[in-house]
Design goal:
Layout: H1 3-10, H2 15-22, H3 30-42, H4 46-66, E1 71-75, H5 85-92, E2 97-102, H6 105-114, E3 121-125, H7 131-136, H8 138-143, E4 151-155, H9 164-177, E5 183-189, H10 191-194, H11 199-211, H12 221-225, E6 232-233, E7 239-240, E8 262-268
Parallel strand pairs: 1-2, 1-4, 2-3, 4-5
Antiparallel strand pairs: 5-8, 6-8, 7-8
Helix pairs in contact: 2-3, 3-11, 4-5
The structure holds S-adenosylmethionine.
Length: 270
């Protein structure tokens, strides 16, 4: 193996690049693929869940644009892939502004490259556990106006915050600064889907804890609903990933909706 190959092999896996691999992307290294393969040994459904999560995110963004939202703060945005938030939002409303935030340097670098000629969207490196630093980032304050409604997107990221107190506090801090008329979008790993699998779930958590710098935890319906606090969930509420916004929509999870693996919901701040 050449030197560059050795360096790549030594890199720990990251949640962002593992997700990219589940989605069939090319921005991942051997360590990411090995870790993701270990996860898929336990839960072969992960790539299907990842695709379903992307589709939920797309539907939620379209809904927000329809509701008049023109500013998006997407935290834990991941490596760009099909159906990026700015593409969906700006197709429907070209004046939409988007700030992507991720801890992963590859996610941020790839996003910035993609957005080179897009003056209404940017990406910054930031940690959901440090909301103030995100909100004060000069590229964010240049693009987003917190006197106008904002769509805060937390898609498939909250399960990487395993400390409950910290997770609720950080989301609370972000929601506090949102003006009225803003929306919060959440999808997050469902304990109901993974808890019954006991050992398998622990094996997946161990892969993330041992091979990435990110911890992992799933939460049940009520625990995830708590993130919305006083916000008003729009219909149909917090439902299985594929059931938002239409609980009757047919999908690959029809036999057992809990196989979609995530709870998903959208709420408005009145
Ligand atoms: C599963 S991906 C989800 C990507 C995208 N939001 C989606 O739904 O398709 C989770 C992303 O969250 C990022 N992430 C994990 N912990 C984070 C944190 N504390 N702050 C910001 N991003 C984080 C990871 O780097 C990864 O890119």
């Amino acid at each position: 193996m050449d030197t560059a190959g050795q360096v790549r092999r030594q890199k720990p896996a990251t949640a962002a690049r593992m997700y990219d691999y589940y989605l069939g992307g090319i921005h991942n290294f051997p360590a990411d693929r090995e870790a993701a393969d270990r996860v898929m040994e336990q839960f072969p459904m992960f790539p299907v869940i990842a695709q379903a999560n992307r589709r939920f995110l797309g539907r939620a963004v379209e809904f927000l644009v329809g509701a008049g939202i023109r500013q998006f703060l997407d935290i834990g945005s991941g490596i760009p892939t099909e159906g990026n938030v700015h593409e969906i939002a700006q197709l429907a409303a070209p004046d939409s502004r988007v700030v992507y935030v991720d801890t992963d340097p590859v996610a941020v670098a790839e996003s910035l490259e993609l957005l080179e000629h897009n003056e209404l969207a940017t990406a910054i490196r930031g940690d959901l556990r440090e909301p103030r630093a995100i909100l004060d980032h000069p590229r964010l304050t240049k693009l987003l106006d917190f006197d106008q409604p904002v769509g805060l997107l937390l898609a498939a990221v909250l399960h990487f915050l395993s400390d409950d107190a910290e997770a609720y506090d950080c989301v609370g801090q972000l929601v506090d600064v949102l003006p009225e008329g803003s929306y919060l979008v959440i999808s997050a790993a469902a304990a109901e889907s993974f808890a019954p699998a006991g050992k398998q779930t622990q094996a997946v958590i161990d892969v993330y804890r041992q091979r990435t710098t990110t911890s992992a935890a799933s939460r049940n319906h009520d625990e995830i609903q708590r993130f919305f606090g006083d916000l008003e969930l729009v219909k149909p509420g917090l439902v299985w990933l594929h059931q938002w916004p239409d609980p009757t929509a047919s999908s690959e999870f029809d036999d057992d909706p809990s196989r979609s693996g995530e709870w998903a919901g959208v709420a408005v701040k009145r």
